[in-house]
């Protein structure tokens, strides 16, 4: 179905998922159940700030409860509205199914410009919003578990976790009510970088298969590829940093709120991020050309385009001017359904959001499991652990020496046992494994089905198939 006018974000997600459902054997009733958003709660609350009451509007949307808890970030931005949170909640349902994290889909948002308020004010506003959501079990370890999204991070998650804990003092699993917390408040190593790291792993997996690379009219490996990034926040910064530092990519342009900077030889991502943090923009960054028209960077000649900021930035207005042969949707919904149609027809390969930015929810799942099990992941407190393990290895050696015919401990066992993985290593390898296996599930459909010519449809077919199976087994 080709939209006649630019669809909204929610309509875009619906058009794309409905297109996939049309290729599946689903009853109309089941398809409708999967399509609709179960509920959206709107709250308007007041906070006394600077001598007066300021009213804020927030949302928490639950798209599908075929698995519980439901999961999805909380966004702080002036652009937040019901359409947006419902679109994001639907994407969470499909994303979780694709990477096989056992959650339904949800999302929340608060209509606020965080830059308008100081830290103390932000804490009061966040805690009050969290209180409103906790009261209705829209934050709860077994029912609804938020995470960071645009405009929020570890700090906000710590305030939310603390608010829930104060309201539920006897809940031993209180820490599992939200993920993306600081490590000293029950978080997990590698969560902050997870979404950008996932983008890196996704591209590595894509470039592992020459047939896929050829479909994007590219050749070779990641090394030396020219990359344009929009948004140097949590996701964009980590993706750009890892791709340039570890995979030999050249980040030739970075677009931010105040414009874009270019350097054909490649930008120093760390230095740009420092500049952005100190000045609030990219303007004035040395060794680069500046253009106040940030969105124009999306139209540059490059190998890989990484939109990592907002939804709808590639739309029917600019889709025919996009020159990158490969686009990876690090942000949620950066390509509208109308633009998706144009890009597909032009042979541009899109690695879709529901897969590309799933690194965040994957590591959030590890954090949630860690909180619920109340055990540490991986090797910690190295010296004490190693001393204890060494005693055990010595004891095993002694027993074996006394047992005729029993082989001595292998070097492999000794090494693995004494120098097991740290939490960060475990998290990264679990994430890598998830990004690979999910890509392979998409790839199989992309390669094998004659009626599927893009990765987005392949991703939706895999994930909707799993959601449908889950509903069927529930007896619906
Ligand atoms: N944080 C996560 O773990 C996570 C997980 C999955 C998906 N996402 C998605 O990734 C996207 C970015 O999220 P984030 O967490 O990195 O947010 P963030 O707030 O950390 O960063 C967003 C960045 O985009 C920039 N930006 C805002 N408006 C812009 C514009 N018009 N042009 C260029 N840059 C602009 C901001 O200045 C900021 O640097 C969102 O779509 C979000 O839903 C985030």
From TrEMBL:
Keyword set for this entry?
Answer: NAD, Nucleotide-binding, Oxidoreductase
**Residues annotated as binding NAD(+):** 195, 234
Matches recorded under InterPro entries: Aminoacid_DH-like_N_sf (IPR046346), Glu/Leu/Phe/Val/Trp_DH (IPR006095), Glu/Leu/Phe/Val/Trp_DH_C (IPR006096), Glu/Leu/Phe/Val/Trp_DH_dimer (IPR006097), Glu_DH (IPR014362), NAD(P)-bd_dom_sf (IPR036291), NAD_bind_Glu_DH (IPR033922)
- The residues covered by the Glutamate/phenylalanine/leucine/valine/L-tryptophan dehydrogenase C-terminal domain are 188-475
Does the keyword Nucleotide-binding feature in the UniProt annotation?
Answer: yes
Active site residues per record: 107 (proton donor)
Q: Where, in this chain's numbering, is substrate bound?
A: 71, 95, 364
User: Could you say which residues are annotated as the site Important for catalysis?
Assistant: 149
Q: Which top-rank group of organisms is this from?
A: Bacteria
What's a single GO BP term from this record?
Answer: L-glutamate catabolic process
- Pfam families in UniProt: ELFV_dehydrog, ELFV_dehydrog_N
Task: Cite the GO molecular-function annotations of the record.
Answer: glutamate dehydrogenase (NAD+) activity; nucleotide binding
Similarity section: Belongs to the Glu/Leu/Phe/Val dehydrogenases family.
Task: Give the protein name, as stated in the record.
Answer: Glutamate dehydrogenase
**Source species, please?**
Rubricella aquisinus
